[in-house]
Structure formats: C-alpha cells, structure tokens
Amino acid sequence: MQNLPTHTAKTELQLLVRGLVYAPGDASYESEAAAFNLATRHTPDLVPAAVNADDVVAAVKWASAPQHVHFRPVHGPRRRERHH
Predict the structure, then answer these.
(1) Which pLDDT does position 47 carry in this prediction?
(2) Other CB atoms closer than 10 Å to residue 58's CB: what's the count?
(3) Domains plus CATH for the chain?
(4) How far is the C-alpha of 54 from the C-alpha of 77, rounded, in Å?
(5) pLDDT block averages, 10 residues each, the chain of length 84
C-alpha cells in the first residue's frame, strides 16, 4: 500500500467533488470538521464539504478504495481478537 501525502490526496479528492476539501491548517477546517456532538473533537486528515448527494457518494467511494485505507476514521478503541 502506498501512503499518499495529504496534499496529493486532497487534490485527488477535490477533483471528484464540487464542494471544497479541507486539510488541517486550512481556513475553515475546524468548523467543517466539527460534529454535532461538541464534546468530542474530530481531527480527520481530510474534510470534504459536500454540497450535494453526489459529493457524499464520491467521497465515500474515494475513502473506501484500498489505497486510501489510512484515511478511514477509527471510532473508539480497536478490539483485540481472542485466541482460543
């Protein structure tokens, strides 16, 4: 698996969506990354600001591609498998 530099991944995703794509350090990144639950701070590598359903579909397809596995969010601790 090849890890893409964030700026390359950002450009790649931006070409697929109509809305802007934000990375840490960009203006509006914090507000775009904020969720409804303000008790939890989210810090994704990229935030596509979808303007329509097509943007959502394109962003999900992009993130689910094997080469982008490192951009997928991890929610909560990972479970360890039990060995019997």
Answers:
(1) 93
(2) 19
(3) 6-71 (3.30.43)
(4) 31
(5) 65 96 92 82 89 95 81 46 46
Q: How far is the first Cα of the chain from the last one, in angstroms, to the nearest whole number?
A: 31
Q: Is 15 within 8 Å of 58 (Cβ atoms)?
A: no
Residues 6 or more apart in contact with residue 20 via CB below 8 angstroms: 14, 28, 48, 49
According to the model, what pLDDT value does residue 78 have?
Answer: 43
Task: Give the C-alpha separation, 45 to 71, whole Å.
Answer: 7
Instruction: Name the DSSP letter for residue 73.
Output: -
Question: Quick one: pLDDT at residue 10?
Answer: 93
Distance CA 44, CA 72 (A): 9
